[in-house]
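Question (not urgent): is this output format expected?
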Amino acid sequence: MRPILTSLLLLLAGTMSAQDFNAPSATLGSPPRQSEQVFSKKIFWTEVGAYALSNVLDGYTTVAHPAGYEEAGFPRGSAFLLGRHPSAARYVATMGAMQVATSCAAYRLEHSQKRFLRLIGHALMIQGIYSHTDGYIGNLVVLSGPKSLPQAKLAP
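Got this back:
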């Protein structure tokens, strides 16, 4: 929870410091600018790429499980979505649909004129990247760990 909170605070601080403080125009008759483009394609597609990469790595290591491996329940794993012994097809269908839905929601939120909604859009993408990266690292620990020790994602 702490890394997500830190990421959100850093994201908030970055957007606050990047505000456009324009001085009043030199001519009195010119109207102020109505709205500037607030959506950044580069940032969005970077988030989508990082999300997809972490999702693929997590999926590959989840499906390439050793014998006796079981996906853990809710707090520690995704057995409620993927089942105890996830297959590649089920992982792609489930997590792919979740990534598409999250990316579409983030796309809409990041187009908002309200900063708070844009931050929520970025937070959705950051949370997805974080959770899949955490899953990938956890799977690497399970796959490379000694076979005699209990596995990190084994159901209790």
